[in-house]
Design goal:
Elements: H1 5-24, H2 45-53, E1 70-76, E2 81-84, H3 95-110, E3 121-127
Parallel strand pairs: 1-3
Antiparallel strand pairs: 2-3
């Protein structure tokens, strides 16, 4: 990793802060480096995030599909996999299973009736890319 050395040291600290706050169920109210993807329905928000990751992994469909915020952390690793905070230690190498887990975790919190929640899903994607 070449680039801004200060940011390279800051990013792991920010990721740890996000993990601690998420595990405590406390909203993180610090101004930290981040990207927010917002827009109307079918505006391409999922495509923007998937382009950062280089994988298709977000739920698609008609109606309200994204019903919880997603906190996505990109981590450098020699191998490619994904982990959720709520499934600590379980590594997802099949990104279609990441999509399925997002859908199932959304339904666990919001129910199957298209409810919406402000409780985020925390996802880390590890990759050499």
């Amino acid at each position: 990793m070449a680039g801004n050395v200060g940011m390279e040291h800051l990013i792991p600290i920010v990721n740890k802060l996000q993990d601690v706050f998420a595990s405590l169920g406390v909203p993180l109210s610090l101004d930290l480096p981040q990207i927010a993807v917002v827009g109307s329905q079918s505006a391409g928000k999922s495509s923007v995030l998937e382009n950062f990751v280089g994988r298709d992994f977000l739920p698609r469909g008609s109606g309200i599909v994204t019903r919880r915020p997603l906190v996505l952390q990109l981590m450098y690793s020699k191998t490619e996999y994904a982990e959720f905070i709520h499934t600590k230690g379980k590594k997802f190498t099949d990104f279609s299973l990441v999509r399925k887990e997002i859908e199932e975790e959304t339904d666990r919190v919001t129910g199957g009736n298209k409810g919406i929640s402000n409780i985020p899903i925390n996802l880390r994607v590890y990759s050499p890319n």
